[in-house]
Fold:
Amino acid sequence: MAQCSQDWVARTVRRWIVTLYVMSWAGVFVACGGTSSNNTNTNQNNTNTNQNNANANQNNANANQNNANTNQNNANTNQNKKPPPTIPGELEPKSWGELKLEARSYALHKELLDDADLQMILMGKDLWVGGKKGLFRWANGKFEQIDKVRVTALAVWELKKGQPALLVGRENRIDLWLNHTIAPSALSSILEKGEKLQVMVARGKTDLWIGTDKTLWRWQNEDTPIQQFKQIKGVKSLYVYDGSPELILHTNDDKIIGLRNNKGSWELRSLEREVKDTTLEDVLPWKNGEFWGMAKGKLFFRKRTEKNVAWWPFRLKPNKDKDFEWSVRRMALDFKAGTVWLWVKDGILRIDEAEARLLRWKEKLEKVVLFRIGKDEGLWISDGKVLWRIGQDGPVTTYQKDVKPFVQQSCLKCHKQGGSADFYLLTTYDEVRSGVNDMIRRIEEKGSPMPPPPNKLVGGDAETLRRWIQGGYRQ
Ligand code: HEC
Structure:
């Protein structure tokens, strides 16, 4: 079986190579939807516009003045359109709370201790970790060493439908773990010219991105030739999520580039210069052209208003009366749940659309070598000694399984289209998510509780909703 799949990869790779020889590089690029220079130009213009907006936002004191300028610009270009909405100076969470989640710990193998380049991935229930000293798998309560070759990246890839395989990136080849054996995969041929593999990320099951010290590669499936992004001269890190339209690359020359497919062609844009006077150290792709970014310990959110795109400072000030602000050290996104995780001095902060919640960390985390959301939707962090998995243990409270049936039985009689309280709908995930704090408040309100008596709570209670919040609003 293993042999069979690898043959299949070999066939595919041979086919790419044929494709590559036949076409000129530029030809391949256009044929595969590579970035054309036209696109780059257009984007450059966009970037300039953004820069202006970002500048406007930077200076809160001048917010009004800047808005006036923005309007003026719009007025010049388009006299009839109404002015854009006012840009507030900063964003911040509407409320603050505590996060209570379990942490499971995995002591690292001695060969993994203090490895600043720790890699981890889950394949089904199997936990894999890699580092400078080789590849390891968690089994029977400890990490077992599989081999001693340096691991630079780990990805789970579906070779055939329903047959996930582990791809293990080494410096100069890509190995495949299948049926309890590890062997070089034919994908390695892209590294034959001496390129060093630096990152490898799978988006979904059939979209594999490989960053080397020289360039960026993408492989989708058997029927598509491998694509090379020649404009990109080396990739240090790469962020892309299942369902995210955009990729973020940190290039070898320390640029942050967004890569987005627009009707078949790839657009590149440079992002790190958008925030005036600060170079973004980290940018992660969010929804609809939005991004989270970090610069000098401050958090930024890039979003679009009707007319503009701008980076907004996102303040983490837990106490309105005190000047204290959290400074951010690491950032990870849970793309599916719509939450942002941050490592701050006293613990871990989770930011939802409107709320920030702090998970206090029992020991002091001196450093963090790994900080990411796993395929099991838990937060995985390591300080170089221990690997932790943070999240609800056991069955996770979800909207479909727990919240929706409860709301249906207890609330929907009135809070639906045509019900007696249809001004306050609780029929969709989004409606319940944005109303959940008010729902808890009203369920527990003594004077006029929900549901109004003699109706009774059926199928759950405020605790169901609290667990759902703590667990991260799972769908
Ligand atoms: C028998 C009809 C009925 C049922 C069942 C019902 N509600 Fe209501 N709800 C109302 C009415 C009427 C109002 C508006 C008057 C008020 O606020 O008391 C309302 C208002 C609300 C509001 C908005 C007002 C505010 O305080 O923010 C929330 C939130 C709410 N209900 C939550 C719930 C929840 C949660 C459930 C289920 C556990 C529920 N309701 C079940 C009739 C109902």
User: Anything to note?
Assistant: The first strand starts at residue 95 and ends at 98.
